[in-house]
Design brief:
single chain, mainly beta, nine-stranded antiparallel sheet, 29 strands, 38% strand, rod-shaped
């Protein structure tokens, strides 16, 4: 009798409804990837039997395949949210020491300063140079932000000033202060070892053809000549020579803050010029900074996690790693929406966002599930009809059996 055909069809339709229901239930789950039921014909025959006389044995579920299509990206405005656009996965370090993978980029910082997901698993990345953000090595590890302390101030060792001196300027007359020595000047702050700001003013006076004298005032102190600048007839920089008793590379002398100890800093003026145009400062910088407190965190499109400090510094804390697999369909699902590596998936390959085919990142956004609710509801109605039709097959077989039993 054919009860097994209808029964197999009902079991397959029921499994299909389970998968569809799971998809619908997770329609609003961040980074969720829907699944599809795969059916296969059940067929058996004796050795030597003709297939033309075999009707088959019904249907079975050969597997449930996950569909890794891209979900829509929704803007959240949260600096630690990140959406993956492409084939990559975030790598997680689980509490038991194992690895897992996810597309859900809703991240946060825990009490220890570790970047974690909503289930508390550590998000892994590459170590980077704090200043440049360059990846130091390919060993992945947790990304940790020093949330319990700020940045200690750093002493200035060099100042760099880029400007243009007016080639039409008159030679300076120190007797009458003509033109006033303050006509051409640049100002900036330097820092001592404690991060205290110290104002520095540089003054430029023309002392001959294609020649300028540079003087300094540190923290309102005396005006002190420090260097002579020479330019060629094209207005290009030629040389910078220290004026005795100043030593080259020690043009600035300032106090450490204790009133007795001094430190020195170099002044680099090689980027200056002398063209027949108005005086203008294009850049002034120095390598020190004040003490700073952590103001916030952000994730850049290249995956770099940056910490913003009150002193204006933005330091890299690491770079998110993305991983890919030869067969993403072979990954196994776990609670929490995470995936784990299996033999069928093949080994993971780690890389940086926006490189190869790992995909890119969009910060301040999350990837929605790729579930099409309309399509799932249509699939559910189709599965329901299939279940009803197979139930009708059982009913018909029952009626046939009753007819046979009632034969006289």
């Amino acid at each position: 009798m054919g009860f097994q055909y209808g029964l197999s069809g009902m079991n397959a339709a029921s499994k299909n409804l389970d998968v569809i229901g799971h998809n619908i239930a997770n329609a609003n789950t961040t980074g969720f990837k829907g699944s599809r039921t795969e059916f296969s014909e059940l067929f058996g025959s004796a050795v030597g039997a003709s297939s033309a006389n075999t009707t088959g044995q019904g249907v079975g579920v050969s597997g449930v395949s996950r569909q890794f299509g891209q979900g829509n990206v929704s803007i959240t405005g949260n600096n630690l949210d990140v959406a993956i656009n492409g084939a990559g996965f975030l790598q997680l370090g689980m509490p038991d020491g194992s690895n897992a993978y996810t597309r859900a980029g809703s991240l946060q910082i825990n009490k220890d300063g570790e970047l974690v997901n909503q289930q508390g698993a550590r998000v892994l990345g590459f170590p980077t140079d704090p200043t440049t953000g360059a990846v130091l090595n390919r060993s992945v590890g947790p990304i940790i932000v020093p949330i319990d302390k700020g940045i200690v101030g750093q002493k200035t060792t060099e100042l760099t000033v880029k400007l243009n001196l007016d080639g039409k300027a008159s030679t300076y007359d120190s007797t009458t202060d003509t033109p006033p020595y303050t006509t051409y000047s640049a100002s900036l702050n330097i820092y001592n070892s404690q991060g205290d700001a110290i104002p520095v003013n540089l003054y430029f006076t023309k002392n001959g053809v294609n020649s300028w004298e540079v003087s300094r005032k540190v923290d309102g102190g005396d005006l002190t000549p420090i260097s002579t600048l020479v330019y060629d007839n094209d207005g290009k920089f030629v040389s910078q020579t220290a004026i005795s008793p100043i030593t080259a590379g020690q043009e600035i002398t300032a106090n450490e803050g204790d009133g007795t100890t001094n430190f020195t800093a170099a002044v680099d003026l090689s980027g200056t010029s002398q063209f027949a145009s108005r005086f203008s400062v294009s850049q002034s910088s120095q390598d020190g900074f004040a003490t700073g407190d952590l103001n916030g965190l952000s994730i850049e499109p290249d995956g770099t996690v940056r910490a913003r400090y009150s002193n204006g510094l933005n330091l890299s804390q690491g770079k998110l790693a993305l991983v890919k697999f030869n067969n993403a369909q072979g990954l196994a699902s776990t609670t929490g929406g995470n995936l784990i590596e299996t033999v069928a998936s093949g080994g993971r390959v780690a890389g940086e966002p926006n490189s190869g085919n790992f995909g890119g990142l969009q910060s301040g956004a999350l990837e929605d599930s790729n579930i099409d609710l309309t399509a799932e509801l249509v699939n559910m109605m189709t599965a329901q009809r299939s279940y009803q039709a197979n139930a009708q097959t059982l009913k018909t077989q029952d009626q046939v059996m009753s007819t046979l039993v009632n034969l006289r």
